[in-house]
Design brief:
It is a single chain. The protein is α/β, with parallel strands linked by helices and about 425 residues long. The chain has 13 helices and 21 strands. It has helices spanning about 5-15, 50-60, 65-70, 100-110, 130-140, 155-165, 175-180, 205-215, 240-245, 290-295, 335-345, 380-390, 415-430, and strands at about 40, 50, 80-85, 90-95, 120, 145-150, 170, 195-200, 220-225, 230-235, 250, 255-260, 275-280, 285, 305-310, 320-325, 330, 335, 350-360, 365-375, 400-405. A hairpin with a 3-residue loop joins strand 19 (about 350-360) and strand 20. It is globular and about 70 Å long. The strands form 7 sheets. The protein has a 4-stranded parallel β-sheet, sandwiched between helices. About 35% of the residues are buried. Helix 7 (about 175-180) packs across helix 8. The protein has 3 domains: about 5-70, no CATH class; about 80-325, ANL, N-terminal domain (Rossmann fold), CATH 3.40.50; about 330-430, ANL, C-terminal domain (GMP Synthetase, Chain A, domain 3).
C-alpha cells in the first residue's frame, strides 16, 4: 500500500558526504553535526554506510563489564525514541518518549498473555508505533518469535501463518478483511492462531471484527496513538464478543482517561460522547522543538487532549467513535488533508481545493478532493489524480475528484467540511457500512 520508497536515496540527497566518505566511522556532515553513522539493512555495502549485520557481529566483541556499566548509566527518563506523526497543520512533529515505552509493551504483553512460545507475524511498518511496539519491542520483552514481512501481502501472510505456526496477528480492519477475503484463506491451516490486536469501536469496523472472531481468532481491541503509546487502552482475552468488536479496551496500569466536552473542558457523564483525554506515565515528553504545540496538546494537569471522540462506561472501558480533528484514516494510515491540498494547489488549473474523507468498504475511508477550478480553465479528474502520482505516498492519493462552484461556509468564513463531506457522499452515491 505504501509503494516502493528509496530511503537510502533520500538520505543521500540530505547527506551528499556519504558518496565520498571513506569509512562509516569517518562520516562528518555540516548539516547534521551530531550524526555519526548511517546503518543500512542490506546484503550490499554502500559508501559511507555500515551494514546492520556487521553492527550485530561487532556486538559479539563487546566485553560484558563495559556493557553492564553503560546499562547502569542509562537515565530511564532520558529520551530514547522519537517517532514522527503528521499533525493537523500539515507539518510532521517528532513525538519524544523515554524508556517507559518498555513498560507499556510489558503491560500489553501481560494483558494479552504473550509468552516465549508465541509467534508474532508482523507486516505492519516498523516506523509506526503499532508495528514497532507489537513487533520488535514485544519480542525483546517477551522472547516471542517474530516473523517479519517486508510489506503486507495477504497471500504471503497466510502462507507464513501456516508454515511458521503463527499465534498472533495484528492490524486494522483492512488487514483482517484482506486476509479473510483472500482466495487461499479457506485452505490455510489457521489453527495455531490464538489472538491478535484489532482496534475496534467504529461502526464501520464491526462487520470485519465479528467475522474475524470466527474465521481467524479471538481478538482484543485497543486504543492508542503515537503521543501516548500504542496501547494506552487494551481489551482482555476474556472479553465478550461485543467488547472485542464494539469497544476499544480498558486503561492499562498507569493510565487514566476522562471524556470532556471540548467546548467547555468539563467532564461529561458516562456514556456521553466527548473528547478523549489521557494521562499517565506513557504520555509523550513533548513534540521535538515544538513547545507551543506541546502546550496545546498537554494541559497543566498532564492530560493529553487526543482530538478523538469517544465514550466511557462506568467500568472505564472506552469506545472510539471518530476524530474531532480532520485527519483521514485510510486503511489505518493517517492522511493529512492539508498535505494533499497543498500538492493539488500546485496544478495550474486549481484555484481552491478541500480534501475530505468519504467511506470505502475496504480502507474505511479514502480521500476525495473537492476542487474549484481557475476561471475559464478546464481539466478532468483523471488529470488531477495523475498529477499527484509519484509525489505523495499511494495511500494519500485522492480516490475521487469532484468539481464544485463553491464551498459551504460558516458565518465567520470557514469551510464546513462536514457538510462538504455529506454532499460529496450524495454525489458519489457512497454509503457507509452498517
Amino acid at each position: 500500500m505504501l509503494g516502493p520508497i528509496g530511503y537510502l536515496d533520500m538520505v543521500r540527497a540530505l547527506i551528499p558526504e556519504l558518496a565520498t566518505c571513506t569509512t562509516p566511522q569517518a562520516l562528518q556532515t555540516a548539516a547534521f553535526p551530531a550524526l555519526r553513522q548511517v546503518s543500512v539493512v542490506s546484503a550490499r555495502t554502500y559508501p559511507g554506510t555500515l551494514r546492520w549485520q556487521d553492527v550485530v557481529a561487532a556486538g559479539a566483541s563487546v566485553a560484558v563489564e563495559p556493557l553492564a556499566a553503560r546499562q547502569r548509566a542509562v537515565d530511564p527518563d532520558a529520551t530514547v525514541l522519537m517517532l514522527y506523526t503528521s499533525g493537523t497543520t500539515g507539518f510532521p512533529k517528532g513525538v519524544m518518549h523515554n524508556h517507559n515505552v518498555l513498560r507499556n509493551v510489558t503491560d500489553e504483553a501481560n494483558r494479552m498473555a504473550v509468552r516465549p512460545r508465541d509467534v508474532i507475524l508482523m507486516y505492519l511498518p516498523l516506523f509506526h508505533a503499532f508495528g514497532l511496539y507489537e513487533g520488535p519491542l514485544m519480542s525483546l520483552v517477551t522472547g516471542a518469535r517474530q516473523v517479519l514481512m517486508e510489506h503486507f501481502d495477504p497471500g504471503e501472510a497466510l502462507r507464513l501463518m501456516a508454515s511458521e505456526r503463527v499465534t498472533m496477528i495484528h492490524g486494522f480492519d483492512t488487514h483482517f478483511q484482506d486476509l479473510m477475503e483472500h482466495a487461499a484463506c479457506a485452505q490455510t491451516d489457521r489453527s495455531s492462531l490464538r489472538t491478535g490486536l484489532l482496534a475496534a469501536g467504529l461502526a464501520s469496523t464491526e462487520p470485519v471484527a465479528r467475522r474475524a472472531q470466527r474465521v481467524l481468532c479471538h481478538t482484543v481491541s485497543g486504543w492508542g496513538m503515537t503521543e501516548v503509546g500504542v496501547g494506552a487502552a487494551l481489551g482482555f482475552p476474556t472479553d465478550t464478543e461485543d467488547d472485542r468488536c464494539l469497544a476499544s479496551g480498558a486503561p492499562l496500569p498507569g493510565y487514566e482517561f476522562k471524556i470532556i466536552d471540548p467546548a467547555t473542558g468539563h467532564s461529561v457523564p458516562y456514556g456521553t460522547p466527548g473528547e478523549l483525554c489521557c494521562r499517565g506515565y506513557g504520555v509523550m515528553q513533548g513534540y521535538y522543538k515544538k513547545p507551543e504545540e506541546t502546550a496545546q496538546a498537554i494541559d497543566a494537569q498532564g492530560w493529553l487532549h487526543s482530538g478523538d471522540m469517544a465514550i466511557m462506561r462506568e467500568d472505564e472501558t472506552i469506545r472510539f467513535l471518530g476524530r474531532y480533528k480532520e485527519m483521514l484514516k485510510v486503511g489505518g494510515e493517517n492522511v493529512d488533508p492539508v498535505e494533499v491540498e497543498a500538492l493539488l494547489l500546485q496544478h495550474p488549473a486549481v484555484n481552491q481545493v478541500k480534501v475530505i474523507g468519504v467511506p470505502d468498504t475496504r480502507l474505511q475511508e479514502v480521500a476525495c478532493a473537492c476542487v474549484i477550478l481557475e476561471p475559464g480553465v478546464q481539466t478532468d479528474p483523471e488529470a488531477l489524480m495523475a498529477f499527484c502520482h509519484g509525489k505523495i505516498a499511494s495511500f494519500k492519493l485522492p480516490r475521487y475528484v469532484l468539481f464544485v462552484q463553491e464551498y459551504p461556509m460558516t458565518s465567520s468564513g470557514k469551510v464546513q467540511k462536514f457538510k462538504l463531506r455529506e454532499s460529496s457522499i450524495e454525489v458519489l452515491e457512497l454509503r457507509c457500512r452498517p
